[in-house]
Amino acid sequence: MHGTASVTTEAAAALAEIRREDDALVAVLSGEWHLERPAPRFAQLMESALSVGPTGARKVRVVNVDASALGIWDSSLLIFLRQCQEYCEAHQIEFGTVGVPERIASLLALARVVPERVVDREAPRLSRVARFGLAGLAAWDATQVAVTFIGEVIQRGALLLRGRVRMRWREFWVVVQSNSSGALPIVTLIALLVGVIIAFLGVVVLKRFGAGYYVSYLVGYGMLREMGALMTGIIIAGRTGAGFAAELGSMKITEEIDALSTLGISPIDHLVLPRVLGLFVMLPLLVIYADLVGIVGGMGVSFAMLDLTPTQFVNGMLTAVQLSDTMLGLGKAAIYGVIIGMAGCMKGLQTGSDAGAVGRSATSAVVIGITFIILANAVADWLAALLQL
Amino acid sequence: MMPAPFAAEGPDAVPPIDVRHLTMRYGPFVVMRDLNFAVNRGEVFVIMGGSGSGKSTLLKHLIGLKPSAEGVILIDGEDFGAADAEERKTVLRRMGVLFQNGALWSGLTLAENVALPLTEFTALGADAIGDVVQLKLALVGLRGFEDFYPAAISGGMRKRAALARAIALDPELLFFDEPSSGLDPVSASRLDDLILEIKASFGTTIVVVSHDLASIYRIADRALFLDIEQRTMTALGNPAELRDHPPNDAVHRFLTRSSEGVT
């Protein structure tokens, strides 16, 4: 009563054969077992062995291994024997290791002994409704955390104005420094191009009506009221907001923030206020510069395309724009500074502990910063329209 | 008979740290439940257990960085978790913490790191603070490194500098998170010397999270064992005694560094 089945992979390669001897199976191993070559799989062998066997045969009671013809081997053999062992455990069959070479047997025992730590942290499978609900709750939690953070910063900021909070001025000056001369090249480039773009737009649209002269109005209004602050805000969100998040995130991971907390020093006073205040002061200053550069860019285009002299351009612009237009832009800039600082610091302080966490914090600080800058811009414009500024 | 006015102030009348029915969670997952122990004044108390058993989490609870899910932590008899901001600050004033990797503020020099707690909590002038800073750095063997930034010194020096910061305010309670991790055997043993020195000289109560056996036997007066399988504490006592008379298999395996149970 012998049924045989075998899977041959390559000539002289790993070979396993299952031979049936009454209520026992013998796995005969031969050839060279190499991880990089295909090896037999035990389940397949078993299937074919059982299908070849005569029907009504006695239940298999034991699986033995015959490794007498085995060549060189590596982990691939171990994988095969593990499959064999697991199959036997699952089907309550005895696994006889008598024929297994000693070195393999001890490795097999080792692989078996290491207990798989019972991890009950695995989340149960949830329905779509439950997942939706949980996502909603998570969003609600995140909102609460954000509102608490904003409230805390505003509260501490108010106390700072009354001189009841000790802020680290050195951190403030570091922010001032890195957002002044350090930011000028990129602000110059972007503001100049934005001025040029607005002027081109004006040339294209206004020239049709023979109103090319009014390009100066468009550039003046565009830069001072909107684009100067908006573009500078976006640049600083990408540059400094991300930097804040990464910096505070690293401090979180190295427990520097914990070290502050255990001294009873509020990370808000010590780290957040100087940064937010720094941008609150610096962003309007950068915007004044960006406005000037943008206007120069627009002037250049007007001169090249419309033969408007700089004097004509400036005179035209001055008949239209007023101080309130500039102040609106600067006011927005100050608000953007607060938004960028808060988004960066909040994301930094919320950083998790894995390797990718700092990167994610920096990214979301930028996304949140830009989103809320544009939102604030829309709200500010709406309010300005209501107040007829 | 009326008690003497200061009878309650005996050495062990109110333990400096008293943990009652503490349960710690990460979200919905229970890390450890029902922890009950008190730390005696002036002893070195080690929290030991395998990786992932919640030792550092317990430390974070003791120093107020994490709120307890259930139970209370009494610091000198006061409920730390329920304290308001001002009370918290007075409690924190009495504590010093040495974090696992030092956690020195990377933007500040060593001297500024040690000085920050002093400027925050005391009304000392710049000169007096400078004297304290010099002394504390000298105590940990870092004289002359005042103007170095943390990035410029070795891991062992960073830990010692962080210890100088932790003892800046002469704390009554000193916490160490894995003091020997990441240190070579000599530096680790030097840090153990420092711990014993601080205990002997200042009478500081010291809580150490550790899984370094050599260090545990050397410094611990008593040790608490957190069992990751049981999710609670399963032994409390002098480590050498626990080794000789292990109350359970897990403690035996841990303290003898073996993978087999009691034979």
Secondary-structure map with pairings?
The complex is a heterodimer of chains A (389) and B (263).
Chain A: E1 4-8, E2 15-21, E3 24-31, H1 42-52, E4 62-70, H2 75-90, E5 94-96, H3 102-113, H4 128-161, H5 169-178, H6 184-207, H7 215-253, H8 256-261, H9 267-306, H10 310-320, H11 323-349, H12 357-386
Parallel strand pairs in A: 3-4, 4-5
Antiparallel strand pairs in A: 1-2, 2-3
Helix pairs in contact in A: 4-9, 5-9, 6-7, 6-9, 7-9, 7-10, 7-11, 7-12, 9-11, 11-12
Chain B: E1 17-26, E2 29-39, E3 44-49, H1 55-62, E4 70-75, E5 78-79, H2 85-93, E6 95-98, H3 110-121, H4 126-139, H5 155-166, E7 173-177, H6 185-202, E8 205-209, H7 213-219, E9 222-227, E10 232-237, H8 239-244, H9 249-256
Parallel strand pairs in B: 3-8, 3-9, 6-7, 7-8
Antiparallel strand pairs in B: 1-2, 1-4, 4-5, 9-10
Textual characterization of the structure:
The complex is a heterodimer of chains A (389) and B (263). In chain A, helix 7 runs antiparallel to helix 9 and helix 11 runs antiparallel to helix 12. Chain A contains 12 helices and 5 strands. Helices cover 67% and strands 8% of the residues of chain A. The relative contact order of chain A is 0.09. Chain A has a 5-stranded mixed sheet. Chain A has 2 domains: 4-113, STAS domain (Transcription Regulator spoIIAA); 142-386, no CATH class. Chain A is an alpha/beta fold and 389 residues long. The model of chain A has no long low-confidence stretch (mean pLDDT 87). Chain B is of the alpha/beta class and 263 residues long. Chain B has a single domain, classed as Rossmann fold (3-Layer(aba) Sandwich). Chain B is built from 9 helices and 10 strands. In chain B, the strands form 2 sheets. Chain B has a 6-stranded mixed sheet, with helices on both faces. In chain B, strands 2-1-4-5 form a 4-stranded antiparallel sheet, covered by helices on one side. In chain B, a hairpin with a 4-residue loop joins strand 9 (222-227) and strand 10. In chain B, helix 3 packs across helix 4 (126-139) and helix 4 (126-139) packs across helix 5 (155-166). The radius of gyration of chain B is 19 Å and the shape is globular. The A-B interface holds A 120-121, 166, 171, 251, 254-256, 258-265 and B 29, 60, 63-65, 88-89, 92-93, 95, 97, 99-101, 103-107, 116-117, 120-121, 165.
